[in-house]
Amino acid sequence: MKIAILPGDGIGPEIIAQAVKVLNVLGESFELETAPVGGAGYAAHGHPLPDGTLALAKAADAVLFGAVGDYQYDTLERALRPEQAILGLRKQLGLFGNLRPAILYPELAGASTLKPEVVSGLDILIVRELTGDIYFGQPRGVRECPDGPFKGQREGYDTMRYAEGEIRRIAHVAFQAAQKRGKRLTSVDKANVLETFQFWKDIVTDVHKEYPDVALDHMYVDNAAMQLVRAPKKFDVIVTGNMFGDILSDCAAMLTGSIGMLPSASLDASNKGLYEPSHGSAPDIAGKGIANPLATILSAAMMLRYTFNKNEQADRIETAVKSVLAQGLRTADIFEPGTTKVGTEEMGNAVVKALA
Amino acid sequence: MKIAILPGDGIGPEIIAQAVKVLNVLGESFELETAPVGGAGYAAHGHPLPDGTLALAKAADAVLFGAVGDYQYDTLERALRPEQAILGLRKQLGLFGNLRPAILYPELAGASTLKPEVVSGLDILIVRELTGDIYFGQPRGVRECPDGPFKGQREGYDTMRYAEGEIRRIAHVAFQAAQKRGKRLTSVDKANVLETFQFWKDIVTDVHKEYPDVALDHMYVDNAAMQLVRAPKKFDVIVTGNMFGDILSDCAAMLTGSIGMLPSASLDASNKGLYEPSHGSAPDIAGKGIANPLATILSAAMMLRYTFNKNEQADRIETAVKSVLAQGLRTADIFEPGTTKVGTEEMGNAVVKALA
Ligand SMILES: CC(C)[C@H](C(=O)O)[C@@H](O)C(=O)O
Ligand SMILES: CC(C)[C@H](C(=O)O)[C@@H](O)C(=O)O
User: Fold this and answer.
1) Contact (Cβ atoms closer than 8 angstroms) between residue A10 and residue A67
2) Residue A74's pLDDT is what?
3) Domain range A1-98+265-356, CATH class
4) Which Gene3D superfamilies match (chains A, B) (predicted)?
5) Best of A104, A113, A201, A279 to disrupt the B interface by mutation (most B CBs within 10 Å)?
6) What pLDDT score does B74 carry?
């Protein structure tokens, strides 16, 4: 079980350290190797995804990823900016299947900006396609506008594209995830406007024939954004493209008010995966020892479940996290009067203790 | 003051009737002419945007639009479906500037799914570009995938495009709107991934030089979706492209919990405009006399303000709407115990009475 550890920038190193501590007490034999990525990759080797880091990630069975981005890299040209590392890893490792749970632990219902009755007990899984769509579609660039009323001016352009096989494989991931949960899948598209998503809808409908036990419905992306705010608990699994998934998964995560709790998995065709917290690198609190490590620890649990098929160990970690919450321990981001505020390291230690 | 009245489908005719009643008691001389659009256009003339309807809209100074869409048109081929009428009108009339306020009236704070302290007094204006972007960009379609690992398969594709002049003109609309409000503008993009939106960001930054009194910031669309849920009152004016604007404006509208109250304007370069409620045609409640006409009545107020420069009359209508809310009158969608439930017609009559 070879794991590439990529801490990245900002709070990345602090939160990754807690997840590593948790992995080390499970009694399994992991082979862990660390490499710099994002701004740290640029600082060390002049590129956000240095060759050595990419090679390590390719050779590993799984990647545990912290977060990337920090102020001092904001003015670099786009190709060198930290977030290119994550786009590069997804594409180079073929990590097309992004699983982003949005779960609201009952103890944290107060953290949400939504009324408790609307969100408490929320448990949605967003399945986002991660290597296609307008994120990677060619051609793209800035050119002279070739036609229409603005002909001759400069224009920026990109290409949205989804091939049949790309849609089929993410649809299979989503239907199978739904089978293991509430057996309801909502495919989010914009078929009333986009050719790509009319095609998406047709293919998802076709794949549905292989999953008669799952109830499928289709929803336009603008309506999905509304329904997430109006009645998020009505969703079970949502599947959508890369761009819509980027927006909706962040919206869903924020509904919980506790994005510091949310893990994610990005999987290839053989369940090799990259695991990372859903939150960012939070450079404003980096080094202060106050970041919430639970999303990263829960990402390690997803890794055990999806890549290493160690469901029991994954359950152990998830139970330990629930128990520290039940004990009333909270990092600053989820603190409420009446609970006990702890730092990053104390929280990690509490999970380790709960595992014992 | 020639106004084309396009009631459309579902609750469209009922709510438009109330807005027309309001216009008729203002003491102005409007020339109103009605034509079918959407499903009603298809039923009458075989097309959602019949030639006569388009000609009427072109000849008018403003269009007052109800809503389109009903179950029986769902299975038509895409080109004949009701929503094509609205896309056609936007494009044919050059209505590139969409103004969508998300306002939460203090009396209705309880209707939101968000906690009152997060949303009460919310007053955001979303400025959405409406005739460009991936909505209309060519080429688009379904073809044989020309390259990459899925070469030879079918693929759906669309083109995102924004020319410099297109971005400049919507930026001017947004900066000018911000000048009349809180003087803060957030431009929403995805410059970290899309060429189109790096270009968008550059042009908006350039236009900003002409509006030194407005504070401009830039935000990624995924973060904007999060911030709308987390702290929506931090926004003043948001400007974005057609696709992102579709998603974010619906999300913002739903934050209020009272989308039945929200008007919208879609303007061309000389302030000719199409005015419509932000909600849809709600075929499930059509004909029952229970739909909320206030968004349509407030759309008529926007028409007086933006197309006809009749600010005083617009103010009168807005004040009348506030007064019926203060009287405790509510249609079913915004009803709460302790208020008085009224139907569509009663609500329209109450506004007329408040105007007197
Ligand atoms: C950093 C950025 C390129 C990335 C994305 O848009 O996919 C991020 O927002 C995410 O969701 O992981
Ligand atoms: C009906 C549809 C084509 C339209 C859009 O996507 O623009 C609608 O959602 C809107 O926002 O007015």
Assistant:
1) yes
2) 87
3) alpha beta
4) Isopropylmalate Dehydrogenase
5) A113
6) 87
Question: Nearest residue on chain B to A110, judged by CA atoms?
Answer: B115
Of the CA atoms within 13 Å of residue A31, those in its CB half-sphere come to 7
> May I ask the CATH architecture of the domain B1-99+259-356?
3-Layer(aba) Sandwich (3.40)
Cα distance between residue A323 and residue B305, in whole Å: 58
pLDDT at residue A352 in the model: 98
- pTM value is 0.96
> Which residues, listed in sequence order, are joined to residue A6 by a DSSP beta bridge?
A65
Residues facing residue A128 across a β-bridge: A98, A240
Q: How far is the CA of A243 from the centre of ligand 1 (A)?
A: 9
What whole-number distance in Å separates Cα of residue A165 and Cα of residue B230?
Answer: 37
B250 is in an annotated binding site: yes
- Which residues of chain B are under the pLDDT cut of 70? none
Domain B123-255 CATH class label? alpha beta
- Judge: B222–A246 Cβ closer than 8 Å, yes or no: yes
How far off is chain A from B23, nearest CA to CA, in Å?
31
Q: What is the dihedral of CA B296, B300, B302, B306, to 10 degrees?
A: 150
Common-topology check for domains A1-98+265-356 and A123-255 = yes
* CA of A250 vs chain B CAs: smallest distance (Å): 6
Domain ranges of chain A: 1-98+265-356, 123-255
- Mutational pocket test of ligand 1: of A78, A83, A91, the residue with most ligand atoms within 8 Å of the beta carbon: A83
Indicate the DSSP class of residue A214.
S
Choose, from B42, B189, B190, B272, the residue flagged as catalytic.
B190
Q: Do B159 and A159 touch (CB under 8 A)?
A: yes
A305 annotated as a binding-site residue: no
Stretches in chain A below the pLDDT threshold 70: none
